[in-house]
Amino acid sequence: MSSRWYPRYVLGNPQLRVFLPDFWMVLQKPKHPLPPNQIQLKVPVYMTKWDVKNYLENIYKMPVINVTTRVRCGDIKRAKGKIYLIKEEDYKTAFVDLPKDTTFQFPDLFPKDRVNQLSKDLSDAEKEVEFGRLRERRKYYKNMRDNVPDWFQL
Q1: 130 is in which domain, residue-wise?
Q2: Which helix (H) or strand (E) holds 26?
Q3: Do 91 and 16 belong together in one domain?
Q4: Do residues 117 and 123 make contact, with C-beta atoms less than 8 angstroms apart?
Q5: Rounded Cα–Cα distance for residues 103 and 39 (Å)
Q6: Whom does it interact with, and what assembly results (predicted)?
């Protein structure tokens, strides 16, 4: 299934080959609440239920009970500043059921204390940007006084 080319095995050399599938999976945050033992994944259209199950069991060592898939149509958008439309690629959404005793909690990527620290850093950066804008504005207006003599300009 893999399209990677590995060097041939030569007698006496250690065989360090790892075959990984050419699939990708993206963990999606569901729009509607799911049971605690169910996760939602975005996978390519050509990936089947069995591929999803084998991928999760063999690579991530997750016990999978059932996999349900749905093909989703890609969004149709208007190109910026153009007349024509652009259609994004279709994708498949996989709902994976885990055993009843396991619970999956979506990871908290932005904890509250980190968000507060980032907002404080951002406010300092915004102050610096605003100060730079004021300085540039002063330079601009200083050079715009054409109707006064040179000896009178600051």
Answers
A1: 108-145
A2: strand 26-28
A3: yes
A4: no
A5: 10
A6: Component of the mitochondrial ribosome large subunit (39S) which comprises a 16S rRNA and about 50 distinct proteins.
Q: Is residue 150 part of a domain?
A: no
Cα 18 from Cα 6, distance rounded (Å): 9
Within a domain: residue 153? no
Q: Do residues 112 and 100 share a domain?
A: no
pLDDT in tens, 61-74: 999 999 999 999 99
Relative to beta strand 76-78, strand 26-28 is unpaired
Contact 38, 95 (CB under 8 A): yes
CATH number, domain with residue 26? 3.30.70.330
pLDDT per residue as tens digits for the range 94-136: 999 999 999 888 777 767 776 666 667 667 777 777 777 777 7
Phi, psi of 127 (to 5 degrees): -65, -40
Whether 102 and 115 map to the same domain: the answer is no
CA separation for the pair 154, 146 (Å, rounded): 12
b/e map of 61-83 (b: 16 or more CB within 10 Å)?
ebebeebebeeeeeeeeeeeeee
Q: How far apart are the first and last CA of the chain?
A: 73
